[in-house]
Every structure is written in structure tokens, then in C-alpha cells.
Amino acid sequence: MSAAMDTESTYSGYSHYSGHSKKAHRQGRDRHKSPRSKDGSRSEKSVTIQTPPAEPLLGNDASRAEEAQDDNWGETTTAITGTSEHSISQEDIARISKDLEDSVGLDCKRYLGLTVAAVLGLLVFLTPIAFILLPQILWRDDLEPCGTVCEGLFISVAFKLLILLIGTWALFFRQPKADLPRVFVFRALLSVLIFLFVFSYWLFYGVRILDSKDTNYQGIVQYAVSLVDALLFIHYLAIVLLELRQLQPMFTVKVVRSTDGESRYYSLGHLSIQRAALVVLENYYRDFTVYNPALLTASKSRAAKHMAGLKVYNVDGPGNNVTGQSRAMIAAAARRRDSSHNELYYEEADHERRVKKRRARLVVAVEEAFTHIKRLQAEEQQKAPGETMDPREAAQAIFPSMARALQKYLRTTRQQQYHSMESILQHLSFCITNNMTPKAFLERYLNPGPTLQYDKDRWFSKQWTLVSEEAVTSGLQDGTVFVLKCLDFSLVVNVKKIPFIKLSEEFIDPKSHKFVLRLQSETSV
């Protein structure tokens, strides 16, 4: 029965959007046929293509119309409907085209870096082994006997190479977290240093050992051991440059979201601009509340309504004296603009009242729904095996009793685009499985969470562009400003250096803590 209700509500929602779509298209054709628009300087139109969610919450046409009337939704919406469950908008088209343009270059750069790192790693690990084996293969009969000393050196080389292999795997062979616009300078410098170092060892080995066919095998083995020791020191240098150098905080960055002004502060060490941008984005997905463009749309429409004033036209020409009437109308428009803050105050107060009311209804509905679920003990499960349900079935059984209250609350707070029916059922079954309370279930819906809390399909920010006046490979400096842009908004990052703190010490003698009680005649002591 619940499935039938879902299908009926989905169909009614699509019918509502389809009728609105036809009306919007007819109005657009009428405006196009008119010889002149109202504003002669503007003749372009913008059409927003939006489709309702694939799995809307439970509800009927009356509730949808009521919410649309309350929240002023759907006034300029054009929807494409059909039997398909998938939809696409203009923003999605822009994202797809940009991803197609950038994917080829990013993939080539990623695979090129992996190929260079793999070849250099093989060269590093095979070089000491080749130094030891080549004399044994080419002029084995002419080599001087080495004995126990060489065997001890073999064991040393083997364990040092094993340690170097483990350290290299832990430091370099990690799954990349992002595609940076430029190469990592320190990593590139270390790669060049390792290549030059190994090349110089091969050059010396070819001139002094291979050409002359040196018979001192112990010296050849010690030469290979010195190479492995030097590689271990280079690995230690890589740990210092890549990991330890950035740990000490040196800068404080302020991150501001351009649309709603939400801001956070973070402490960073010595990093380049592109790596600082990566750290900022990692913290953004965790700390910032999810971006909700529906709230911004409501505020913009309210501001446009308050800024609309009265226009005065002299229809009869300049000869008529309408100065008094014009001044009166202008004064009325000024008084209307002056009283707009009162309208804003009452509008926000009414919205807060409706949110509190529907929040209370939602809390009561969820608490009543959770009272019908009881975890069965092992003995009770054996007594009534036919009446038991798994968490998914239990969630589907109690969800209809809270669905309408949850739908109204999400629509009032404009969060309905982030929560589909399937995600709510999964969260409800998760709470039932782990014996969580109604408050734990409602925590996700009463307060907007960070971006990572929602599915990736609900994110409005996946592709970012770094905009900076300085080179992105340069280090952070005091006063550096860079911007991280995505399709819908941007993050403005301002860098400030942590000031140098001068801390002095003052010694207090414990014997100096002595006091005198002064008595006066008026006191009661």
C-alpha cells in the first residue's frame, strides 16, 4: 500500500510540474511574438530547467500546492517530464562539458607522473643489485675472494633495501587525493636529485669498474652499500621536506563562502598556494554546512520586492503641472522603502514560527513512530518467529506515520533536495539496527550538516578552479589572497601570518604573600 501511495504522489507531483511547464512555455511564446518588450534594452530570456527528485517524499497535491504557496516556489520553473527516472539540467550540462574538456589532460598528467615514478623507483632498487651482480657475470674468474666480509655486506644491503622499499611505499605510493594544477615542487626536486645521484653513481661505476674490470670485489660491494646508505639519507630528506616541514603552524587563513558569508579559520604551515587550497577544500567538506541555493533564492526575491519602487510618468506632456502629484508619489515610495525593514522583520518572525511549529510536529510524530518498534530478545524471537521483521521492514512499517510531518519540515527549511525517500529509509533502518533514539534519528534533519554527510550526487561543488595573482607553486605569504571557484559559488581565502610572540618571565617570591588587616571603628569586626 505504501508503494502505491508513493507512486500516486510521484505521478501527481510530475503532473503539477508538467502543467506549470506548459504554462511557462505558452507565456514565453507570447512574449516572443510581441513586437517590443517592456524594457527595450533587454530582450534575452533565461530558462531554468529543473526536474523534481526521482524519489519524492510522501504527500498529495494539496500539500504540494500549500507548500508552493507558502514558500513561493515554482514561480519561474520549467520542468521536463517523462517516464524516465533520470533528469539533467543546464548546470549538469555545463559540468559535463567542463569535465570532458579537462579529463583528457588530467588523465595524461596523472599517468605520466605514475610512469615516471615507477621507472625511477625500479632504477633505484635495481642499481645496487646490478652493481653486485655485474662483476660476477662478466669477469667472475678474475675477482679476488671476499669471504665472510662480503657475505655480511650482502645481508646489510638486503635489509637496507627492504627498509628503503617499505619507507618509499609508505611515503610516495599513496592514493592521490586531488589533481593539482601544477607539479609539487619538492617532490619534483627530490625526483631530479635521485636521478642525478643514481646517474652519477652509474657513470663512476662504468668508468672506474666496468672499463678497467676491477678485481677487488670487496670494494665493489662496499661501493653498492654506500649507494644504499645515500638513498636512505635522501629518503630521510624527503620525509623532512614533504611531511615534517608543514606541521608547525605559521599562518592563519580565513575562508569565506561568497554566497552566504559563512567563514572558518584554519592554521597552516609552510605550504604552497595550491597545497594550501587543497587543505582548505578538505576542511571545507568537513566543517562548512552544505550549500543550499534555495535559501539564497528566497532572500534575493525578498530584496527585489523591497527595492521595487513607484515610477512616475508625465503622460500629458511637459505643459501640464503635475509637480505636486509627482512629489507626493515619490514621497510615498520613499516611505515604503523606509518601512521595508518592518516587513522583513515580520516575514522572518513568521518563518521562524512556522519552522518551530513544524519542528514540534515532526518531533512528536517521530517519537510516536519509534514507540511501535521494540527489539526482541532471543527468547521472544523463538516464541513468535512469524511476527519478527528485519530493520528494513521495520523502517518501511513506521515511515508512513512520520513521512508527512518530515516532508513539511524539509520543505519549510528548504532541505528537500538533499534527502530522498531511499536515503531517509536507509538512515531510519540504520538507527533501528543500532538501537538509536528518535533524537539521534532527527539530528540529520533538524540541523544542516556538513557536505560530507550527504551523497555526492547532492553536492553542488565537485570541480574547483584556483584563482591567484601569485604563482600557485609559490609559498604562502602574509596578505596572500586566492579564490577557489566552483560552478555555484566561490571560497575567498585570506592568509595572515601568525605574529611573533615575545614571552617574558616574572618571578614572585612566595614569602611576599603577607597581608595586614586594617580595622576601622565603623566596621563590625
Automatic annotation (TrEMBL):
<feature type="compositionally biased region" description="Basic and acidic residues">
    <location>
        <begin position="36"/>
        <end position="45"/>
    </location>
</feature>
<keyword id="KW-0472">Membrane</keyword>
<feature type="transmembrane region" description="Helical">
    <location>
        <begin position="111"/>
        <end position="133"/>
    </location>
</feature>
<feature type="compositionally biased region" description="Basic residues">
    <location>
        <begin position="19"/>
        <end position="35"/>
    </location>
</feature>
<feature type="transmembrane region" description="Helical">
    <location>
        <begin position="153"/>
        <end position="172"/>
    </location>
</feature>
<dbReference type="GO" id="GO:0005886">
    <property type="term" value="C:plasma membrane"/>
</dbReference>
<keyword id="KW-1003">Cell membrane</keyword>
<feature type="transmembrane region" description="Helical">
    <location>
        <begin position="224"/>
        <end position="244"/>
    </location>
</feature>
<feature type="region of interest" description="Disordered">
    <location>
        <begin position="1"/>
        <end position="86"/>
    </location>
</feature>
<comment type="similarity">
    <text>Belongs to the Vang family.</text>
</comment>
<keyword id="KW-1133">Transmembrane helix</keyword>
<dbReference type="Pfam" id="PF06638">
    <property type="entry name" value="Strabismus"/>
</dbReference>
<feature type="compositionally biased region" description="Polar residues">
    <location>
        <begin position="74"/>
        <end position="86"/>
    </location>
</feature>
<feature type="transmembrane region" description="Helical">
    <location>
        <begin position="184"/>
        <end position="204"/>
    </location>
</feature>
<protein>
    <submittedName>
        <fullName>VANG1 protein</fullName>
    </submittedName>
</protein>
<keyword id="KW-0812">Transmembrane</keyword>
<dbReference type="InterPro" id="IPR009539">
    <property type="entry name" value="VANGL"/>
</dbReference>
